[in-house]
Every structure is written in C-alpha cells, then in structure tokens.
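chain below, 760 aa
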Amino acid sequence: MADKIKSEIIRIDLTDASYKDTHAYIEPTYVNFFFGNNGAGKSTIAKAIKSGVGVTYAPGRTATDYLPLVYNQEFIDTNFRSYRNMKGVFTLNAKNAVTQQQIDEKTEERTVTQKALTAATEKRDKTNAARAKLQRDFYKECWDREKAFREEFPKTQTGKGKSEPFTKEILRHTPQDVDIEELRRLYDSAFADTAKRYSRFAVIADTTVLDTVEGVDILSTIIVNSADTELAVFLRDIGATEWMRQGHDEYAHSTDGKCPYCGQGLPVDFEKTFIDSFDTKYQENLRQLDSFLALYKQKANELFIPLQTLPTDIYPQIDTKPYIDKLAVLKAAIQSNIEAIKAKVDNPASTVTLTPVAPILDEVSDMINGFNTLIDANNAIVDAGPKKRTECTELAFSLLAFRLKDVIASYRQSDTEMAKELGDLETEIKKHTDALEIIKDALKALRKNTVETETAKESINNMLRDSGMQGFSLQPKPGVDHVYEVRRPDDSIADNLSEGEKNFIAFLYFYHLVYGSDSADGETREKIVVIDDPVSSMDSGSLFIVSTLVRQMIEVCRNNADNRNRTADGNFIKQIFILTHNAYFHREIAYSYVSKYEYASFYLIRKLNTKSSVKLCDDVNPNIPTERMNVNPVKNSYAALWDEYREVTSAVPLMNVIRRILEYYFLQLCGYEGATLRQVILVQGKAEGRFKDADGNDDEEKFQLASAMLSYINAGSIGMSDGMDFVEECLNANECRHIFEMIFDAMNQKQHYDMMFRNQ
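prediction:
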C-alpha cells in the first residue's frame, strides 16, 4: 500500500483555543474524518481551515485558488436567518439577509419617489392638455376671423388649408401694415394665370427739343432785300420782292425762258439780272429760314411719330385715352408752330414767336413714366416668378399678423405662462426620474450582490420530495426577492420549526452551494468542504438523508484520487473534512473508506485538562507488516448496527441499517459479490418457493422488497434526486425484518442472524 496522497491543504498547524501550546498539527489527504466529543476541539479545526490561519497549501497553490465552504453553526445562523422576525419566513444566504434589508429601504424610497413622480407627471399632463386646448382655440379663432382674407388671396394659402398650419405661418411673421391695394396688384401680377411681359411706351429724351431747335433766332429776324438794281428797286416799290422770289424759285426751272405769270419771253440776261436784284445777306437769311423750317419738321416727326405709336399689347391697368388726348394737343401745338414758320417764310420781313411745346411734352413724359412704372413693375414680377409669389405670400401673412396682433399677444401671454409651469414640472419630473434611476442602480447593485437562491430553493424542495420528507417545503414570499416561507402540506406557514428542521434545511442549502455557486454571476470555483457536526438535533430520517448527501460529496472528492465512482459527476471538491461527535453518523459516512488508506484519513480528537490533541488513527497492517492501514476510532460498529436494527421502527432508517449489515457481513467479511447474492436469493430463492404467501401463491411484493434490498446495497452512493427503490409509505418495518431474516437463511447464515439479533 502506498503512502497517503497529498492534496490541496498539506498541513494545518493548530495554535488557537484549546490547541495553544500543544504543537498539534494535521497533514490531511483528500478525505478526512474527525471524531471527537462535544467540546473536544473539532470546531477550532473547522475555523482554522476557513480562516487560513496555520494552513499550508500545496506548492504553487494559495487560499485564493479555492472556495472554502464550511458547514457549522455559524453557517446555519448566517444563511438561514429569520426575515424581519417573521416566524416561518427566512432568507437563504448570509449576504442576502443584510442586502435584503437594504433592498427594502431602497424599495420604500422608490415608492415615495414614484408617487411624487406620478403626481408631477399627472399635473404636467393636465397642463399639457390645457395648453393644447388653448392652442386649438387660438388656431380656430385666427382661422375663423380671416376667412374673407383667405378667400381673396387663396393662392397665398397653399399648404395652409387648415387652422394649425395657417396660424403657425402667421406666428412666423412680423406684423406689418401692408397697403391692401398694393398687395392686390402684387397678387394679381404674381399669381395671374395670364401673367406676361408688356412693352414700354416710348420715352421723351428731351422735352425742350422743339423749343430749342437750332436756328430758331431767324424767326425774330426781319429779312429784307437791300440790292440797288433797277429790278430790285422796282420790286421793293411795288412790294413784290417775295412774290417774285417765290415764283422764281417755284417755276424758273420749268418756264423754258418765259415768264410764269404773263407767259412772255424773258430777257436773255434775266437770271443774272434776277440774282443781282437780291443781296447776299438776304439770300443767306432766306436759306436759314428754309433750313429751320425743315429741321423743325424733322424734329417734330422724330418726336411725335414714336409717341403716337402705341405698344401692340397694352398693359390692362393703363388707360390710354388721357394720353391720346394729350398727344392731340401736342400735335396741334406742333402744327401751329409749323404754320407760323411757314408764314415767316412767306413774309421774311415779318417776325414769328413759336408756342412753347415743352410744358405739353412734360405732361406727356409724366404720363409715359407712370405707364412705364406700372409696366416695369409687372414685368419685374413676371421676371421674378416664384420670388415675387413668395414676396406676395410673405406680405400677406405679415398683414395677417398685423390684423391679428391683439389675439396673438393674448395667446402668447397665456402660452408663456403655461410653458413656464411646464418647465418647472419637467424640472421636477427630471429630479424624480434621476432619483429613481439612482435608486434603480442601487437596487440593481444590491440585487447583483444578492446570491441567486431560486435554484437552491428548487433543489431543496426536490431533495425533500425525493427523500420522502413531506413535512414542509420552501415557497417564495410574495413581493420579496430571495425570501422564502416554510410551508406545511396544508399550505400553512411552518411557524414552529424545530432546531433539527432548521439545521436540516440549512444543510440542504449548503449541499446546493457545494454543487453550485454562491456568487451572483454564477462563478464556480474549486472547493474545499468542511462539515462540522451536521446532524445536531436531527431526527433519524434527516440524519439518513444528510448521510447520503455527505457520501455523495465524498465520492466527488474521491474522483480527484482514483476517479473510480462513475455515479459521482465531477471532481470540483478538492478536499473534504468531516467532523462529528455522532458515532452513528460517523459510521454511516466513513465505514467504506477505512480501506482507502491512500486518500482517506481518520482522526480522533481528545481534550484533557483543557488541552486538545489530534491523533491520526492508523496502525501496522497485520497482513502486510511493511504497510499501514486506517483504524476507525469508532469501535464495535457492526454490533452497533444490530443494536440499531433492533431499535429502529421507521422503514427508511431501517432499510439503511439493513444495507449496512448486508454490505459489511456478506460483502466485506464473507467476500460475496452483489451479483452472487442476487442469484442465490432472488433466482434460486424464487425457484425454491421462498416467495410464497400463506396460500402457496407467488408473493410478488416479497420478491420486490428483497430485490430492492439487494439493489440498494449495490447502488453505492446515488444522488438524492435520482429516486429511490422504495418510499417509506410503501414499506412495513416488520415485513422488512422478515425479508432480511430470509436473506440470511437463504445464504445459510441463519445461525449468525439469530446470534446477532439476540445478542443484548
């Protein structure tokens, strides 16, 4: 046999309490059993492992690599705590008890804050509703009052065909007292279906053009002939100088040498005589006068013809009649001046004064400028297109804003007051909302710090149900997280739990932690498990279940050593320490590990004169003197089993005792295999008629009970949630004893049965 295998904790030096100055130490292996009376010093060992004081780990490992789980009275007190002193109502987990109180306080704070938030929100909603009504009424009033305006200027209302967009557009504009006639003209031009450009009227560049014709001074000049020829003197005497000149100018070129007046032949030298009869100055003045007449006519035509030539398509808003009438006056004045000039030509010696035309032309020019202003405005609008339509629309709404300014002012005052009230309410709401968020985060942090216990509750209830413990179950307390009520089968709260029942529930929770996690994030770490007197105050049924669960944990730890037990999943329990003063419990969990010297150790704890000691219980193997073996410090275990067999009345613990006896006697002492027992007792026994009733018929119930007993001893350590081969209500203790005796008889060991049963 090899030496003991070192595990995670390789040494524990005990220096506290009753171990002071004793130099006691432990060099544990994987599975470690401690037996000692109450007060001997077991709890000191458990506390040392939990605190890490005096604990030495394997090379390369530290305490932080493991999650130490210690089941003791402290665990019970802190993890199964009464909630607000309510009987039958408990919290699971130590952290949850403190945290739940903080959660309750924050929850109350949240309730108060939520009420304040609700009140502020309701007030805000009412104010919003009142503000919305104020707005709707305002929109309607503006809409109704300006119906006529909308109908007159419909094309400025595109997209504003309802009261809300109509009024909102008005509010966008600065009030402006727009001339309604100007707006109408602009509207007609900007939105006219036939909008088009019109030609301008011809303008007068210079209204003085006819009054300042070059050479006008000739009209005031007296033009006379001063020649002294006989003919000139004669013509002057008879006053025919101009008559003669005009006739000559008119007809000389076509008389063929004859006088155009009498028809007689003219002298040969008549032309020379005629020319000599007129002096040079006279002739020059006459030419100037003729030139002025021609120039005046030219200027008059250049002026008048464009003026009287009207545009083909006249702008509809222009009345041309006054203009035409004024042109007639202008024409008459011009014609009168031409006639005066002609009279001067006919009588050069006379003087002529022309009628001023400029005043008339000024009036005409003003009319033309007025016409062109209208035309230019129209053309500008046409040219501007959308820009002018936008301008017209803007002016329309500016005018509406002006017309409705009193209504708008009243609305804005009321709306501003409501907006301020809403602003104050929103500030208050934000304050409460922010406070709720802080509370929410605090609750979230607290709940995150809270260990999840619902899974533990379900696991505990399943174990209670599967083990036949139907006296109570855990149910969530309504409205409170991680708080549970212990309820009886009639759904009443179990307000009178015994100490043993509390300890039992606490152990089931401990079992759950070992197999699960104690952290909110579900983290699972490798565990070192310490179990310190778990069955205190428990009845036999609870003790049996706890024993079964402890064996499961041992088997998980065992997998780290030899991985032999395929019914125990995992190897997360790296080391286990079990301390007890209960001999029955000790035998229940330790009996099958005495032979596992390499990874199982047995210790005896004694106290003498206030000093505690720990003794490793081993000895020389008598069969192999070179090796050592474990020695169970609890003596006479087999005889004790028969004592329990005689005393136990409940079927569940009785079946456990029967299993122990059958395993120890037939498997360990006699060396039988489980299969052999089943063959002899069940197969051969049925053939030999051992399972008959009083009438000689096959008794199937007896056969199944025997099969259950044998199956039970072969099952090893099974999970409590895997189910049982029997339930207590289905068994009769006397029938169990009868079948148990029959097994010894079938194996030809009836004598041994009688001896042990009668051994008092």
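The CA atoms of residues 124 and 425 lie 6 Å apart. Confidence is low (pLDDT under 50) at residues 83-91, 715-728.
thats it, cya
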